[in-house]
Amino acid sequence: MYSDEEINEIAKKSIYDNKLNKISDNLYLSNRQIEILKRYEIDYKKFNDIKSLMYEVETALEEVYDADDLQALSIELSEFNYYHNTNK
Questions:
Q1: Is 0.90 topped by the overall pTM?
Q2: Residue 49 burial by CB count (10 A; 0-12/13-18/19+): exposed, middle or buried?
Q3: pLDDT digits (tens, 9 = 90+) for 39-79
Q4: Which of 51, 59, 60 is nearest to 78 (CA)?
Q5: How many Å apart are CA 68 and CA 5, to the nearest integer?
Q6: Residue 18 has pLDDT above 70, yes or no
Q7: Residue whose C-alpha is closest to residue 70's, from 80, 56, 81, 82
Q8: CA dihedral (13, 36, 31, 33) positive or negative
Q9: What is the tally of structural domains in the chain?
Q10: How far apart are CA 53 and CA 37, in angstroms?
Q11: Which run of H or E residues covers position 23?
């Protein structure tokens, strides 16, 4: 069983990890997503929209082996793009 202090620390980390940051008018990324992009040396600040960032992530995936976190990020970005930028 977790103590109240441990629960508070877990909650704080979860809130921090999922906090969205405005990168440009059309691009928001969570702290966790930014950390993954930094790990693979992807300069997320140069992108103005999600589609160009998605392309860069896909290009990076072709060059690295065993990048499960980057693959998961690619899926997240694709899903976000579909649900927010596709006319239905």
A1: no
A2: middle
A3: 999 999 999 999 999 999 999 999 998 999 999 999 999 99
A4: 51
A5: 31
A6: yes
A7: 56
A8: negative
A9: 1
A10: 10
A11: strand 20-24
Beta strand 27-30 pairing with 20-24: antiparallel
Contact 57, 42 (CB under 8 A): yes
Q: Mean pLDDT, the chain, as a whole number? A: 93
AA letter at 69: D
In this model, does residue 88 exceed pLDDT 70? Answer: no
What range does the domain containing 70 cover? 4-85
Is the pLDDT confidence value at 5 over 70? yes
DSSP string of 37-72, one letter each residue: HHHTT--GGG-SBHHHHHHHHHHHHHH-SS-HHHHH
> Nearest to residue 33, comparing CAs of 62, 63, 54?
54
